[in-house]
Amino acid sequence: MAAELMADYRCHTGEGPLWNPMEGRLYWGDIPQGRLFRLNPQTRAHEQFYDGRQVGGFTIQRDGSLLLFMDRCSIAILRDGAVEFLVDELPDQLDNRFNDVIADPAGRVFCGTMPTATRKATLYRMDTDGSLTTVLEGVGLCNGLGFTPDLKQMYFTDTIERKIYRFDYAIETGEVTNQRVFVETPEGEGGPDGMTVDAEGCVWSARWDGSALYRYSTSGEEIARVPIPARKVSAVAFGGPDLTDMYVTTAGGDNREEEGPGAGGLYRLNLGIRGKPEFLSRVGLS
After folding, report:
1. How far is CA 203 from the centre of its chain?
2. Per-residue pLDDT averaged across 9-35, rounded?
């Protein structure tokens, strides 16, 4: 099945597709432009609902609000159009921003940063009480995360290193241990970006500068490749009432001559493969 264009905001860096099961809508953003969007697939209506500071990643809170991970590594709640900061900024990350994030089964959030000219990226964990813990340092570029269906392992993507790692994960504490390489992509074929895990436990990885989605078996073997009409494929998420729709974000909408005719658009496809529901964050909620 060919990817179907669902919305075209010509995003510079379309990112972070996330299905909201409470609303039946798909959310995504355009990071450098400070824009967030949402789509109702039943009516095909879509809109931009946020225009402000950069949002590198976000989660949906259990109360329906959005938890925003922003530039200057600020963290805020977006509720009814109002932004309330939980973390004003991280003093050692003022020239940086968060990138990909994911809520875990207990409502915590793993949140990674970009690298800067003077230091590499860092992966943090935000616990439900709002505290931040450093999980990994010296990362090339923090990107896609996901959990195995049994919730005993966590995936983490380092785009610069072209690697997807797998960790042992403890749901009771949020600790990750035993880091090992799950997939290393070939040099010169782009880098792994956002990802998700389907109900069979296979990993779907968007390929930045690779014009495709890749599906990997639980042992890390490539078992499918789906072309997308944009060079920079940034992220993928499952959605829809039965979680068989796949939503794909792309980048490069301001330079389609080089990045492809569909660069910057949001796409949908359905391969008959079911996804897993993403977890809701519970930061600051009892």
Report:
1. 13
2. 97
